Amino acid sequence: MSFSIRSFGFSMAVFALTAFAVQAAPVVKGPGRGSLIIAGGGKLGPEILGRFITLAGGPSAEIVVIPTAGGAASYGSDCDCLKIFRELGASNLTVLHTTDRKEADSEAFTAPLRRAKAVWFVGGRQWRLVDSYLGTRTETEIHNLLARGGVVGGTSAGASIQASYMVRGARSGNEVIMAPGYEQGFGLITGAAVDQHVTARHREGDLDAVVTKHPDVLGIGIDQSTAIEVTRDRFKVLGAGHVFIHDGTEQPNGGRYYLMQAGDGFDLGKLTATARR
Q1: Domain-by-domain residue ranges, the chain?
Q2: Which regions of 169-264 does DSSP assign to beta strands (E)?
Q3: What CATH number was assigned to the domain covering residues 31-274?
Q4: pLDDT class for 2, splitting at 50, 70, 90?
Q5: CA distances (Å), 30 to each of 9, 130, 261, in order?
């Protein structure tokens, strides 16, 4: 048996490229149990917040609201962050907030999360959520809440923090898409990066840079007044705007993303849009 060094080298190069492509393909997974509501900011209608309350178990369900991304020193039971839930009849609401990681890692602070059926992250700046909660008992209890079949939701910064790759985490400003030291989210949906306020802030193509640098990440951009509901290996689109899927492939629109809208579904395992439901 004989072969040329040149042909062997070519075969190895093809193998290496193939192996890289297989390695680079995003592996996107939602929570094994429970659901996520990931919203793109702006005014959220009852088709989004009402759905969150329904998944929590109804208006009497225990819901924890975390407003830390907003940046205030303290939040009480009169927090404006509760208004949107009260307007829809939710009555069993707890505000949870700290900037002290030691407190966030304590059993006493996380007790409401162990009782709750749902937790909601208010918008603001992602880095504040990272500084306060990433790697603490608070984050662990949020994962545990999902494992019990609960629901985690959030809007704007509270959307991006739910992904494994977190965008716009820079302390210097949210115009920085990839910020070293602030690129890790809570990983409630893994293999993905979530951006928000897309059309309103002209961010349509911004996630292209993320998926180019990190080809193992699927980019999901969400308009204001829009959300995705993630359950295990699928999500569906809720609300008035669009969801932008950045998968690194050239699209007929000249960009590297395609659009989805309310009623559209997406198969996270196959990385393809599915028929409307």
Answers
A1: 31-274
A2: 189-196, 218-222, 226-231, 234-239, 242-246, 257-261
A3: 3.40.50.880
A4: very low
A5: 40, 20, 19
